[in-house]
Every structure is written in C-alpha cells, then in structure tokens.
Design brief:
The complex is a heterodimer of chains A (112) and B (112). Chain A is mainly β. Helix content of chain A is 0%, strand content 50%. Chain A starts with a strand and ends with a strand. Chain B starts with a strand and ends with a strand. Classes of the chains: A mainly beta (112), B mainly beta (112).
Chain lengths: 112, 112
C-alpha cells in the first residue's frame, strides 16, 4: 500500500532537547511538507521541499530544521530554540504544484 | 496573497438533515481547490480537487461545487460518521512553489 508514515505517534521530550520527527513516503512524490496544528487551529506550514536536496521555509520556520537527502524522506528537527514546541505535527506529500497533498497520521509532541 | 475563509466555524445537524459548508477564496489564478476531512487526532484525508468554475465532484453523501469566488461542500442526508472537521485549501498561480493555503475548517457534528 502506498502512503505516508510518521513515527512515532506520540513523543515526549524535556525542555532544552532537540527532537527529530520522521516522515517517509512511498508514493514517488517529488514534494513534501511539514505542518504544525495547535488545538482548534488551522494548519501552519513549517517547511516544504519540492525536490531532493532543496527546501524552503514556510510561515513558522523559526526553531525548526529539515533535510531532504532522499526523495522518500523528509525529517523535521524541533530544536531547543522553538519556544512553544508542544503540538500536533503533520507531514504531507504531493506530485507538485497544483496537485493535492496527502497527509500522514501525525506525531503528537509534548515537551515539558 | 491567497486567502481562504470557511463558514460556519461549527455546524450541528440531525442525522438526515442536509446542509452545505462554504469556502470563500481569494487567489490570483486558481490552480486548484481542495477539500479534506480530518478526524480528531488524525491527519487530513483528501476528498476532492476542483480546478475550474462550474466543476462538481461527488463521493457518497458529499458533493463539492466551485464558482469563481467560493466552493460549497454539500452533505446530503448526513450520518453520525460524517462528523469531522472539513478543511478547504487553494493553490494559486502566484503562490510560491507547491504550497497550499488552508482555511481554519468547519467542525461538523451529526447527531443520531
């Protein structure tokens, strides 16, 4: 089955620690995205990548970093510089411009 | 800058009571308008893509329509399992790359 996997589903970290969220897709999509969703709010774009070895900042990139070394993988690192990291993180992929995005199941990160 | 406004924010229906959700958008050159369904704690599930005014798409009890300024998601004879948050998103010709602009969503509750 083709799709997007995110792991883990739940993640707990202490304040001051960096943490990396995994996102893998086997849809052969060129573009991948990371969103953050807070309770009762819409999706906010963190970073996106339209092709391997290239990525762009979204609307709330501060405190986050990404890499895109392989077409199927787009990991997100939440650094200690992110002031309010507790949230639901969603990864998505698409064929590219003008196409629908497909989402993974999400990772809920709690930082205490 | 692309903008998407969804209304109402929340909608309660009785089982079998048909209604419509609205998505108003402002975009310079529409590449595509997308509807998603999101259940609590899960990633959004893709429903429809609409590309041009007058286009309609159907899936079970859902029907999406598009004009030059808005899209409607019509729900016919809803069932409790249709309860979810419905998200609308657009891709515009002047938007950088393949990113989408999402609305805040309409939270639909269908009571038995």
């Amino acid at each position: 089955d083709g799709g997007i996997t995110q792991s883990p589903k739940y993640l707990f970290r202490k304040e001051g620690q960096n943490v990396t969220l995994s996102c893998e897709q086997n849809l052969n999509h060129d573009a991948m995205y990371w969103y953050r969703q807070d309770p009762g709010q819409g999706l906010r774009l963190i970073y996106y990548s339209q092709i391997v070895n290239d990525f762009q900042k979204g609307d709330i990139a501060e405190g986050y970093s990404v890499s895109r070394e392989k077409k199927e993988s787009f990991p997100l690192t939440v650094t200690s510089a992110q002031k309010n990291p507790t949230a639901f993180y969603l990864c998505a992929s698409s064929k590219g411009t003008g196409y629908e995005q497909y989402f993974g199941p999400g990772t809920r990160l709690t930082v205490t | 800058e692309d903008q998407v406004t969804q209304s109402p924010e929340a909608l309660r229906l009785q089982e079998g009571e048909s209604s419509s959700l609205n998505c108003s958008y402002t975009v310079s050159g529409l590449r595509g308008l997308f509807w998603y369904r999101q259940d609590p704690g899960k990633g959004p599930e893709f429903l429809f893509t609409l590309y041009s005014a007058g286009e309609e798409k159907e899936k079970e009890r859902l029907k999406a329509t598009l004009t030059k300024k808005e899209s409607f998601l019509h729900i016919t004879a809803p069932k409790p399992e249709d309860s979810a948050t419905y998200l609308c998103a657009v891709s515009g010709e002047e938007t950088s790359g393949s990113r989408l602009t999402f609305g805040e969503g309409t939270q639909l509750t269908v009571n038995p």
